[in-house]
Amino acid sequence: MIHTTPARFAILVFSALVLLWTALLALPIASETGEMTPISDAFFTAVSAICVTGLATVDMATHWSVFGDVVVLLGIQIGGVGVLTLASLLGLTVTRRLGLRQRLMVASDTNPNRTAKGASERQAVGLGDIGGLLTAVVLSLLVIEATLTALILPRLLTDGLGFWNALWKSFYFAASAFTNTGFVPLDDGLTEHLGDYYLLSVLALGVFLGSIGFPVIFALYRTLRSSSIRRNHIGLHAKLTLTATLAFFILGWLLIGSLEWNNPLTLGSEPLGRTLFDAGYMSVMTRSGGLGTIDPSEMNGSTRLVMNMLMFVGGGSASTAGGIKVTTLAVLFIAAYAEARGYKDMQAFGRRIPNEVLRVAVSVLIWGATIVLVATTAIMHLAGTTLDETLFEVISAFGTCGLSTGLSEALPDSGKYILAATMWAGRVGTVTLAAAVAATSRSRMFRLPEERPIVG
User: Fold this and answer.
1) In a domain, 90, yes or no
2) Which domain holds residue 163?
3) What is the C-alpha separation between 176 and 185, in angstroms, rounded?
4) Residue of 159, 273, 151 lying closest to 202 (CA atoms)
5) Helices (H), 158-213
6) In total, how many domains does the chain have?
7) How far apart are CA 24 and CA 71, in angstroms?
8) Alpha-helical segments (H) within 286-412
């Protein structure tokens, strides 16, 4: 299964980790009170940690003991790296060599559709670059989180925390930001740091770096190391990811700022500089960060709708962010532009995009929308909640974002399980699910007659 159907192996290991983390978090030693955590809350927290979502049904700063916090922190690190990538890193540590099968396994983790479609076309990360990609994963995880910890530590020390307590919470913050999880280790959350431009900027930087994805970080690192002649030869995937991420950040910044400008409960009572900063910060958090400073329940309905769309898109492919991914939507827009201009091929940055990529993008969009629709309908029926609050919570779960109106804590156990399943589907990814199902399909030796239906 590892070598023939890595998508199924990833789902199996991912699910097994969730069950293991549920058992660990349900232990009495994992709670601060020494009592056993209810299975529904332990399961929800385990899924939220492994899926790097950030939604919670308990107070993450006070409910868990040191043991529980360590379990949660390990979960978000594993979920951020990826199951197959982590398995390859462990195998590389034991065997001290990276064989073809391990390279294919890592390649399927960065692009689950790759093994099903073949590798004849030019890939964003070639098999020869897998070793460098694994190195980039380890180095970026260590270097970026260590740097974020060092930047956050002085700020928490000024709050009066002891050195070791401040160091632990700084590392917790760094891991939560870079993996785009959104758990906050402070008792009052980020309430005491509203308007703290320094700390919030560091957290936003960590979320941005985690949301662009390890292949993009690897491409940027490789480009910086290359000669000046080849310095502009950055791959199409990296260009699309960075361009789309910047475009969605600016769009979210403008829309959130303009829609909440006169809302006295959110940005309306703030000075101009802080209003602009908070709007930009919340736009970054919709990439899948979840470390929000504004309560979404106090926002206008129009603003929550905009944030729904931003969270549904999420971050970059093969990143710690969720959603259908910015490259997916970019390909759909490129296809629409090509159709409007009458181009036969999709083109971007001097490259032609195969039609197979468009089929995958359409599939991801449809399956993602279907998952959100089914989960929203089920929770509304079981919990009797409204469409507005339920849709926001479900999209936040699917996009592994973690922004919440507070609905997660109020849901019955059945609603918690549905929301946990939505987080699981959002993190595993629709492409991985489709690849796991398609592994049993047989190739046909014939083609049916062609006939064109009326579309549009």
Assistant:
1) yes
2) 6-313
3) 9
4) 151
5) 163-178, 197-212
6) 1
7) 7
8) 301-313, 326-341, 355-383, 387-398, 407-410
